[in-house]
Amino acid sequence: MEFALGPTALSAGYRLTAYPRIGSTNQEAILAARSEDPGAHWFVTTDQTAGRGRRGRAWVAPVGNLAATLLIVTPHDPATAATLGFVAGLALDEALRAVAPDLAVHIGLDAFDGVGAPGRADRLRLKWPNDVLLDGGKLAGIGLEAESLDGGRLAVAIGIGVNVVAAPEGLPYPATSLAMLGLRIEAPAVFIALSNAFAGLIRIWDGGRGFPVIRKLWLERAAGLGEPVAVRVGEDVFSGAFETIDEQGRLVVRSASGLSRTIAAGEVHFGAVATVRA
Asked: Are 88 and 94 in contact (CB under 8 A)?
């Protein structure tokens, strides 16, 4: 099965470059931007050998997983561009629900039909700032890189990795893959759904003007909302309850004493793990 854009993405004018093997799809996107690529351009592979994750960590992607980067060229506004990570999270969530509907909701033995019914739990959740969780394990991650261009423009490489055939080992957090759940879904099928979902959601985002809608949708699918969290920022750890994200996508945590803190970047740990790591 070869990579292809979904019909919504095609009609919106997106382009696609697929590689059998490449060092980093993010790097290819940035190089293209330096060569005056106008953006709306996907770079994809199932064999990425030199990807980078959060804080410059190696982004290990076993062969068969999806590594995709969307290049967007926008007016130079890094704060607004950073909110594209939430668009990507929603697009991934929507794509995964499309290709594997059974992943969305787990129904316990005592469950009955209906929203909020006992025993029903949404298995897919979005973790601030840029992960997709399935049953609490990391299924996908998002990493943004940006570079200033001439003419007051900003190139944004939105890197997306999905554990399709395998989850990386030796991580400091639980991870899972579609194959581990017995799902025979290939990376190109996930990508078709992702490209369609992104094309629709970025229209809602509308250069950042529609971020209030994106924020609302994201919060409806957020992991740990209202629950205890510990956020590591450098060497400091701030504990409290995950209250919301603000109008810029920053995490808002409220301590037991009522102190509210807004965090632009950090590593989040939930529940009992938050207590231990704090």
From this structure: no
Give domain limits for the chain: 7-220, 228-277
Interatomic CA distance for residues 201 and 189, integer angstroms: 19
Radius of gyration over every alpha carbon of the chain, rounded to an integer in angstroms: 18
> CA angle, corner 13, sides to 11 and 15, nearest 5?
120
Q: 3-class DSSP state for residue 66?
A: strand
Return the H-helix or E-strand segment holding 198. Answer: helix 187-205
pLDDT at 235: 83
Q: Among residues 88, 74, 94, 68, which one has the least CA distance to residue 208?
A: 74
Q: Are strands 41-45 and 15-19 parallel, antiparallel or unpaired?
A: parallel
Q: How far apart are CA 223 and CA 89, in angstroms?
A: 12
Nearest Cα to Cα of residue 43 among 67, 4, 69: 69
Report the CATH fold assignment for 228-277. Answer: SH3 type barrels. (2.30.30)
Note whether 133 and 124 are within 8 A (CB): yes
Q: Cα-flanking dihedrals φ and ψ of residue 189, to 5°?
A: -70, -40
Averages of pLDDT over runs of 10 residues in the chain (278 residues) are 94 97 96 97 94 58 91 94 97 95 58 40 89 93 95 97 88 86 94 98 97 97 93 87 95 90 88 46
Q: Whose CA is closest to 81, among 141, 32, 152?
A: 152
- Overall CATH class of domain 7-220: alpha beta
Would you tell me how many other CB atoms lie within 10 Å of the CB of residue 124? 21
Asked if residues 175 and 80 have their Cβ atoms less than 8 Å apart, the reply is no
Before 129, cis peptide (omega within 30)? Answer: yes
Tens digit of pLDDT for each residue in 108-126? 444 333 334 444 468 899 9
pLDDT of residue 275: 45
Q: What is the pLDDT of residues 196-215, one digit of tens each?
A: 999 999 999 999 999 999 99
